[in-house]
Amino acid sequence: MANEPFPSTYRAPASPPVAIIGATVLTGTGARLDDADVLIVGGRIAAVGRGLDAPPGARVIDAKGRWVTPGLIDIHSHLGVYPSPAMQGLSDGNEATNPVTANVWAEHSVWPEDPGFETALEGGVTTLQILPGSANLIGGRSVVLKNVAAVTYQAMKFPDAPYGLKMACGENPKRVYGEKNQAPSTRMGNVAGYRQAFADAQDYARQWDKYRGELADYEKKKAKHGDGSHAGGKGNDSGGKAEGISSVPPVPPKRDLKLETLAEVLNGHIRVHMHCYRSDEMATMLDVADEFGFKIVAFHHAVEAYKIADRLAEHGVCAAMWADWWGFKMESFDGIQENLPIVDFPEHSCAIVHSDSENGIQRLNQEAAKAMAHGARVGLNVAPERAIRWLTANPAKSLGLEDRIGTLAPGKGADVVIWNRNPFSVYALADLVFIDGAPVFDRAHPAARPRSDFLLGMPGAEATQ
Amino acid sequence: MTRSVLADPMRSALACWVAMIACGAPGFAGAAAPAAPPAGPGDFVVRDATVYTESPAGVLQHTDVWAHGGSIAGIGHALAVPAGAEVIDAHGRPLTPGLFGGLSDVGIDEVSEEPDTLDSMQNAKAPAWDQQWRPEFDVTAAYNPRSVFVPVTRIEGVTWTVLAPSSGDAIIGGQGAAVTLDGRFGAVLDGSASLFVQLGHDGAKRAGGTRAAESMLLDQAISEARGHTPPGPGSLLHAAGRDTLARYLGGGRVLFQVERAADILRAVDFARRNGMHPVIVGGDEAWVVAHELAAAGVPVILNPLDDLPEDFDRLAATLDNAARLHQAGVRIAFTSGDTQYARIIRQLAGNAVAHGLPWDVALAAITSTPADIFGVGTIRGRIATGRSADVVLWSGDPLEVTTLADRVWIDGRAIELRSRQTELRDRYLGRLKSR
Lengths: 465, 435
Known about the structure:
The complex is a heterodimer of chains A (about 475) and B (about 425). Chain A has about 475 residues and is of the alpha/beta class. Chain A has a domain at about 70-190 and about 255-405: TIM Barrel. Chain A has helices at about 115-120, 170-180, 185-225, 235-240, 255-265, 280-290, 310-315, 340-345, 365-375, 385, 395-400; strands spanning about 20-25, 30-40, 45-50, 60, 65-70, 70-75, 125-130, 140, 145, 165-170, 270-275, 295-300, 320, 350-355, 415-420, 430-435, 440. In chain A, strands 1, 2, 3, 4, 5, 15, 16 and 17 form an eight-stranded mixed beta sheet that branches. In chain A, strand 2 (about 30-40) and strand 3 form a beta hairpin. The model of chain A is unreliable at about 230-240 (pLDDT under 50). Chain B is α/β, with parallel strands linked by helices and about 425 residues long. Chain B has a domain at about 100-380: TIM Barrel (Alpha-Beta Barrel). Chain B has helices spanning about 10-25, 150-155, 200-205, 210-225, 240-250, 260-275, 290-295, 320-330, 345-355, 360-365, 370-375, 420-435, and strands at about 45-50, 60-70, 70-75, 85-90, 95, 100-105, 160-165, 170-180, 195-200, 255-260, 275-280, 300, 330-335, 390-395, 405-410, 415. In chain B, the strands form two sheets. In chain B, strands 1, 2, 3, 4, 5, 14, 15 and 16 form an eight-stranded mixed beta sheet that branches. At the A-B interface, helix 9 of A face helix 9 and helix 12 of B.
């Protein structure tokens, strides 16, 4: 890809070391440590274990009776692009003017003042993937944000996080375009649309490959024949011609922003996140991905993932799910409350809790808890130390950020939540939230909480005082 | 079926309590209880439960509850077991009244995005001033007890709900009422009929873009119902509509779906002027006018999870809404407002507790308080002798998300914990485990 045109300006704030002492720690790696300590130094996890020594100058937090987890990650959010208030003037989530808009980037719609960011933070969410909506077959690029208060989205942008591409199966694209009397109006029209888009992208990639090959040849030969035309040497110039080398460099193909993004998917730099409810459509999409040689990292809203749990695990594809959403459209009619634990059951599975909701994102822990309860009833017991991975390590993996966030392993970014109790409870509240070691939310200090510009001086302001 | 539109006073509920406590009931008196009559269909005894009576009796530890003929026949210790009664040992687990599912369209609407499956809304497809208003529209006429939503909802311990008309493009959406979710055809609960009015910006859209016109049009409709404006061209109401609205003017229960503080007070004032018993639904900004609501005795049915300024009617939305209203003395009940999510009502209550509402008030907000609001509090919403055996045995704290309903009874009938969803679960779980 060309150089990054909208670079992150996020800088982790300098913060003193932190020692969280005596907590029940769910590391996100699958372990649960009781009466354990978590040390944060330089914005990273320094150590997790029992009886650790607090680093010099550390802020020591007594967490006896409290629980500590990695920061929660929601890979399906429309905060900022469909913000609160849901005004027409702020509604920027679907570029529903063409079924393939791989050229649009969600980040250009993100309104950083969406008050939903701070309520999500109160729910322990430290990283979010903001996606375009699902009106289109290919909706555009996602952006991964750190949940920090900022005036620009660039200041929230997760440095060097891979981009995602939002794609959508099923009812939404065919409804949106069918109603406009254009393709796609059917599921077969949907699939034709994906395939043509990627066929075009293959062609585009070939043009660029060809150009790059010609350019390399040109430069190689130019170098071989001395200083080249830039030096202005007449002899060299004629010498080149004698060997059949053009004196002018090859002309690059015109950039096509839509195909450029899709070509980045084909070469593996952009990760496909696909809205897909039905198991049969997921299977179709796995074949489409194979046909064109790209990978789908996660099916989102995978209401029927339980029907193909084995297949998803075999393919190493994550399924991002709600606990109990169902019935609002035909493709969600087969929703069951055991979806998460069933998908989690096979070896190498990757079950994720996602929200797609400014409300649900505030309670991802409760969504997991509900699914755990329903799983347990049918013999699928998921311990807290495993269930926390649905909210941390597994979404990190789907984002390609598993080496940086999602667990409390030493060296990872210190995105940490201290809960007032077992987080898998309706009564659990995040007491403290850290991002890269910096305290960004403290329930005990309401005045210091992030507060959107939008809410300043608003009639509701007294609610939080 | 005749249904009173009179709002339920607590008086009759209390009278029932006095009678129960004064007289006792067969089988109530512990070990020395007289021999009970033979068990009829649906007889059961739950032994050693923690009984949340939602009554002056409070929470009873290690207590037995006997249901006979669909009603609670006895509450006490070591109740004699009638022959043939099912005995369930609760081992201390909580037993609560069956839960209220909030305002929903269970059995009315199925798949939201499939118009052919929806019956909650009549759409005039005209601006409100040009419509024939239809307060006589009664959404309960569309109730289908065999909807797949009914078992899906009730196996979570939700035994009754209030069917609410969707307002569509109307300011007066029509009437709704409470139904039991046991699957019977005649499911509407006596005395629960209610009129639904949409105010605020949703209503304003229908009234030509301004909420000021809502009041204007509502006043016109009232005038027609009172016979002050003779029927004629430009009338909002038919004869049936005039009759219906006139009934509510005599103390009927009217639910105002409204969020903004100023609109809430406007609704309360409108109801007062017209002899209606108002209930605020939504009420995201109700806490702002909590003292006024308390003074007027107006209850609020809210979603305690609403905490974002979703629009300019709810800039003051906060998770503290429920706790603040309660503190001010306002009666509250909860609703998710969604048919699919009537079943998550417990989660709403639990979150309200996490944000400052006393636990017992939160349980009441999904049992006895809504039962009282909808005029069925003498039958449902409490565990007491003579009341409906509408009870749920829980695996743990009923407001906790990790708790599930272990047993559900509606009017004494044991509800099989099966739904289309459990069938799907069992089919695919079986396949997965057999591999």
